[in-house]
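User: Please go through the entry that follows and flag anything odd:
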Amino acid sequence: MITTSPLRTALLPAALAVALAALHLWTTAGVDTTRLAELMTGATPDAFADIRVTQAVLPRVVMGLIVGAGLGLAGSLFQQVTGNRLASPLTLGASSGAWLAMVVATLAAPALAASAREWVSLAGATAAFGLVVGIAGLRGLMGLRAVLGGMAVNLLLGSIAGGIVLLQSPYFGHLFVWGAGDLGQSGWDRTLWAAPRLGAAALGILACSRILGLLRPGAGAAEARGLSLRPWLVLLAALALYLTAVSVAAVGMIGFIGLLAPTLARAGGARRPLTELVASAFLGAALLSGADLVAVGASGVLRDMVPTGAAAALAGAPALVLLMRRRLAAADHGTLEMPQGPARPAAITLAGIGGLSVLALLLAVFVSPGEDGWRIAVPDALTLSFRWPRILAAAGAGGAMALSGVILQRLIRNPLASPDILGMSSGATLALVLTSLVGGVSIHTAGVPVALLGSAAVMVALLLLARRHAHAPMVVALVGISLGALLDALVKIALAAGTADSFALLGWLGGSTYRVTGGAALALAGLAVAACLGLRAAHRWLTLIGTGDATAAARGLPVGAVRTIGLAVAAGLAGTVTALMGPVSFVGLVAPHAATMIGARTAGAQTWVAAWLGAVLMVGSDWLGRTLIYPMQLPAGIIAACLGGGYFIALLIRQRLAARRSGMI
């Protein structure tokens, strides 16, 4: 067995970080090597090129090193404390919480956002992390529930932040760049602000390495050695959150560094807590320096700024899949259970849903605000010609996404599965955005075939990656995380230019019915009805495959073919909805859950009840989006994501508390 000394394990990443920083300076400085050395040793700048080096290039390189080190250190600390190798500021929701807090503060209290930005950012990161802890519990942080809970929190907070930015797009253009991770500097102010804060937190973490050593065998072993567990866990989590908050406040959202650096550190031989912390910090610095070098080079080629965070995600997402997929196991299924509910829907419950459906339809058709306040009136022919496609498209999209969620939850026996969580919506959106960026065509022109191709690519990835691990939830969740990050990176590259087309793209990304034509609306509604009828006819397949592959095969079901067909249908539903009105989050997650909770526990019943609930949710969301901030509008997808995401997170917390009271956890 070959062993690596702790000193070498730490020094090699340090040398790599220094080499990449030097390469960054050499390639981007714009002056010869001799003059660069003179400027770095204190020579007085006497030309514009010299000033650019001392006030832009040097502080940018230093910022990349210190923020990368901070993110790598935060990721390592999260992973060591939780024992979860997918834990990071990204997957535990901390980064998105910090970003949302900064967006809100910039809008509502700009003076506070400027003078106390690390504390504003820390408050958001702590609140988001608290949501994940509420979903998973302290002991659950080491499992899949924490990762998927963090993804749900990321989707929810990202939808809220996206809605705010969309509303303020003419004035908040700089948030596109900052939110994508911007290392650009115009002086040393931000670098000198971040350095002592990150340094103090890093020293505090390194001083706690002995505590991490006690925690490594497990919480029980640490308590047996006399460690008072709770205060130390709170302190360590606070330090990791503070590093995250300062990093987000300084340069914006940079996601995959804190996830990838500790993985590379362990792959390089880091076995002791202190060694892993130090190696992760240096590797984080190297990764971010390299990503920034790529971003600067790509910006010169594309003639548009490429955000550093986007470049980091483009490299980090596929690398994470390659590094982690062999460490996953099918036993992760055991941590997940379907929601509880009665044996069948009660008549009064169905009547209530029917009443809610009628109310949503009446509001959507007859109730709207105007210059003189709210009014209830029969719309004229022109108004109705604009209104009915939106209502029908919203209903069709909600039903189709709900049915896609039913299929996925049944096929892989994962109650947290949905087309947005598993990356199918992301695959469709990614294909459309790439077509728009590379081909220069409108997303609406690219259409359904491109979206279906993207969803199909995700389907193939799921089949290839999950087959080896018996379709373990961790595998498909990891694919979803990675594709979501890739999508986010490409979208932020598109939005960084801040053009009118960029703002139009942002509106589409919210899942808007605004541009849906009558033909597209009829197609969506017809698709949802056809899928519902087809799934009702195939309910026996869904029931059998939900019992397990062995049982289903023993009863004569061709498991491989059924799973392939089911994934294809789920991907097709998600891709079509995405192509016609943009990505829609949480509907495919919440509607099947809600259907099960009210008693639709069989596959046949869950199919039509979930489609019904999804349609009602989207019609209501579209009406709220049209009326809440009249005369401005919000996309229906953002409203649905906020409503559905909030409900789903509250449901997860409630389920954990119920399980705790019953003694199950």
User: Anything to note?
Assistant: The beta strands are 367-370, 373-376. The first strand starts at residue 367 and ends at 370. Residues 329-336 have pLDDT under 50 and may be disordered.
